[in-house]
Specification:
Elements lengths: L7 H15 L6 H15 L13 H27 L7 H17 L2 H9 L4 H12 L6 H12 L15 H25 L11 H20 L1 H25 L22 H6 L7 H5 L20 H8 L2 H20 L2 H14 L4 H14 L1
Helix pairs in contact: 1-2, 1-3, 1-4, 2-4, 3-5, 3-9, 3-10, 4-10, 5-6, 7-8, 8-10, 9-10, 10-13
């Protein structure tokens, strides 16, 4: 099962392809896998086991298969739109199903697979990552992710780290802008040394624009304007879903960059399906210690701060009151009082003040002072 579990993501894309092939309301098959994963995640116990992988090829294979299947999925969708639906089909409902299935599969499992491939050393793997990332409107995500997020995570200098009190709907816009600006500025700096323009054909920004607009254009030329427009809408929407997943991984955490990276510096989702569908990125503090470490070598640190299942946290983030009061505040209070270093506690107390949250750190320190005095 240490090997077979990662082929579940391959199966998810295959199910979506089958739905588009069958047509009618079967196009909802891809989107329906979310409910399947949610139910399994609620039924199964948390997974605190380390994987035992002695033949890496067999767990890397689904990563390569995934990119091929994503191309097939979008191709089958385009074919379905071009071919049309049965006259008895509610067209608007079917188109909504196409949209929902494409967004869901382009986010999960596509994002975790793209993330894993972009951290590989090989040029071929990174090329595959660019293809996968095109489907969430950010083909060169790796540039800003590696050179900004991995250096500045858990600080105000990282656009992928949500600040305390920052609502989901604020964060996705800030994170999206930050990701694009990081890529633009880093690529501009690289090319300026060679006296080349960031808008020229030697620029990754240029080819990124070709990829994200060429994909819906190509589908539109084949299957019509509706298919092209729907593809563009899917890619843009999935980009925001991607940032929503970032919202869950580092929300409110504090880190002093001059200090070593510790287990407390990411949230962990150890539920079984979160780990599988996320290609282990929900168990990822070791990934921040060594970005080249393959997903199957990430170790479980059971004492690290935990969040509930990703499949629970993601919809909770859409409802600010639920996210703040039922999910994140109780866990950040525990983090501040039990995990944070003294320097991080100072940062956290200031962050709580800016967010308008209770000063539980000051209250705890005052209580301790009174206890000592007594």
């Amino acid at each position: 099962m240490d090997y077979l579990r990662y082929y579940l993501n391959t199966l998810l894309v295959a199910v979506a392809i089958l739905g588009f092939y069958l047509g009618g309301q079967w196009v909802w098959l891809g989107a329906s896998t979310y409910l399947f994963l949610l139910v399994l995640d609620l039924m199964l116990p948390n997974d605190y086991k380390n994987r035992q992988i002695h033949h890496p090829f067999f767990v890397d294979l689904p990563l390569y298969l995934h990119v091929a299947l994503m191309l097939i999925m979008y191709g089958t969708f385009a074919w379905r739109i071009k071919t049309g639906f049965d006259i008895t089909t509610n067209i608007n409902l079917a188109l909504l199903g196409c949209f929902a299935s494409l967004v869901w599969i382009s986010a999960v499992p596509n994002l975790p697979v793209a993330h894993e491939l972009m951290h590989r050393r090989g040029a071929f793997e990174r090329f595959l990552a660019n293809i996968a990332a095109t489907f969430f409107f950010d083909p060169h995500r790796a540039i800003g992710h590696v050179h900004t997020h991995h250096l500045h995570f858990d600080t105000e200098n990282d656009s992928d780290t949500p600040q305390r009190g920052e609502k989901f709907y604020q964060f996705i816009w800030r994170a999206t802008k930050g990701a694009y600006m990081d890529t633009f500025e880093l690529e501009k700096r690289r090319l300026s040394v060679k006296n080349k323009s960031v808008w020229g054909p030697g620029s990754l920004v240029f080819w990124g624009l070709v990829a994200v607009f060429g994909t819906p254009l190509g589908i539109g030329l084949y299957a019509g304007a509706l298919a092209g427009s729907l593809t563009l809408a899917v890619m843009v929407t999935t980009k925001f879903v991607l940032e929503a997943l970032n919202y869950l991984q580092h929300y409110g955490l504090q880190r002093v960059t001059s200090q070593p990276i510790e287990d407390r510096h990411t949230w962990h989702h150890f539920s079984t399906m979160s780990r599988i569908a996320g290609v282990e990125i929900t168990n990822h503090i070791d990934h921040h210690r060594d970005g080249f470490l393959p997903f199957y070598n990430l170790q479980v640190h059971k004492g690290a701060p935990e969040m509930p299942s990703v499949f629970i946290c993601a919809p909770a983030a859409l409802i600010p009151w639920v996210w703040d009061n039922l999910i994140v505040k109780p866990r950040l209070k525990k983090w501040d009082l039990e995990y944070a270093s003294s320097a991080e506690r100072k940062l956290a107390r200031e962050a709580n003040r800016r967010a308008g949250w209770p000063d539980w750190i000051g209250e705890a320190e005052a209580g301790l002072t009174q206890k000592v005095a007594a």
